[in-house]
Amino acid sequence: MSHQLRVNPIACRGHGVCAELLPEIIELDPWGYPILRSAVIPPALVLHARRAAATCPTLALILERAQIHRRHKSAGSPA
């Protein structure tokens, strides 16, 4: 199962705690706001991402299970 991160830009106040806890994925812009290098979190970093999201003072960092989009062939579509 894969996970992804997103940032609520309205809630974020640029404390920078997330970048300290998850520097492999998050860097800070010049004003201290997070920039995600990748929204998809590797399995080895899920626990760290969960901790970063839980520690965010404004809860602006959100960890979600990634939805897998699969294409289904319909009966009338060409193969």
H and E string: EHEEEHE
Quickly give the structural class: alpha+beta
Q: Say what the CATH topology is.
A: Alpha-Beta Plaits
Largest sheet descriptor: 3 strands, antiparallel
Q: What number of structural domains do the residues give?
A: 1
Uncertain spans: none
- The end-to-end distance, rounded to whole angstroms, is 29 Å
Shape: globular
Question: What is this structure's SSE topology?
Answer:
Elements: E1 3-7, H1 17-21, E2 26-28, E3 34-36, E4 40-41, H2 46-55, E5 61-65
Antiparallel strand pairs: 1-4, 1-5, 2-3
Keywords:
globular; 5 strands; 3-stranded antiparallel beta sheet; alpha+beta; 79 residues; Alpha-Beta Plaits
Report on this model:
It is a single chain. With 79 residues, the protein is an alpha+beta fold. The chain has one domain: Alpha-Beta Plaits, CATH 3.30.70.20. The protein has 2 helices and 5 strands. The strands form 2 sheets. The protein has a 3-stranded antiparallel sheet with strand order 4-1-5, covered by helices on one side. A two-stranded antiparallel ribbon has the order 2-3. A hairpin with a 5-residue loop joins strand 2 (26-28) and strand 3 (34-36). The longest helix is centred in the middle third of the chain and has 10 residues, at 46-55.
